[in-house]
Amino acid sequence: MGRVFVAGSINMDVVATATRHPRVGETVAGNAVHYFPGGKGANQAVAAAKLGASTTLIGRLGTDAFGRQLRTFLAAQGVDLALVKDTAGTHSGTAIITIANADNTIVVVPGANALVSADDVAAPVLAKGDVAVSQFEIPLPTIAAFFKRARAAQATTILNPAPAMACSPELLDLVDILILNETELGLLAQTELHDTDEPARFVETARRLPTASDKIICVTLGKRGVLALVGGEPSLIAGRAVKAVDTTGAGDCFVGALAAQLANGNAIRDALGYANAAASICVQRMGAAPSMPTAAEVAALRG
Q1: Residue ranges of domains in the chain
Q2: Predicted confidence (pLDDT) per residue in 76-130, tens digit
Q3: CATH class for the domain made up of 4-10+39-92+113-302
Q4: Helix, strand or coil for residue 11?
Q5: Residue 2 has pLDDT above 90, yes or no
Q6: In Å, how far from its chain's centre is CA 289?
Q7: Residue 246: pLDDT above 80?
Q8: Alpha carbon distance 170, 167 (integer Å)
Q9: Active site (catalytic) residues
Q10: Tens-digit pLDDT profile for residues 120-152
């Protein structure tokens, strides 16, 4: 069995719920405020760990109250934190999230996440069969260094290029599996896309990405499911009809679940269906990292 190594962000999510989102310059009354462990790296690591993979998180925390709370939470989820550094002189990553009608807006303040370095990702000893995962909430040169080490060790690399930002073709060259939503796909392909576009448009756009022909590309489409290009051939994994409560961690759940399945030796097509089911459980609960399902929950859903 392989292992999952996630190099990424660790945040405290400060979540306000309201009946609707405020317009620019407007104040609306909220219903409640919650504090949830989050950050895309932490979310993906928790998902992988709870779904049965040996999972190590590589990242940084501040030496503040949020940092202590986040470390305690992640350890309780079974995530190996030996490569998570406490960093003096900065705060832990923080996300300010507003949720209304199950849709969210997010402002992320990186804090210690912005200091995750190439030296940090040089620490793990990767091997063939391992899965290396990252996202865009830590510096891009750090991700490139991490993936170069993974490639040298014949580990599988998974990139979730979120939040959406431009990156070099050289970084994409280091990716085996690219998992992104329509906004991120549109930015990388320099094309405006909408979640209501036909699947054929996503396929056409994905094929225009640099080195698209030699990587697996998964476009997450929310309740519509996941469109996957495997060996250049498209397939649509239909979404599951559920009542969404909070979509904040859905994409991260999908990424972590897919990584766990691949590390455990499952084929990519089986792993895609499993990850899709896991994400459908995640959106029915509040919070990002705390909403990640267990292997037993996914098994019960899939029968």
Answers
A1: 4-10+39-92+113-302
A2: 999 999 999 999 999 999 989 898 987 888 888 999 999 999 999 999 999 999 9
A3: alpha beta
A4: strand
A5: yes
A6: 10
A7: no
A8: 8
A9: 252
A10: 999 999 999 999 999 999 999 999 999 999 999
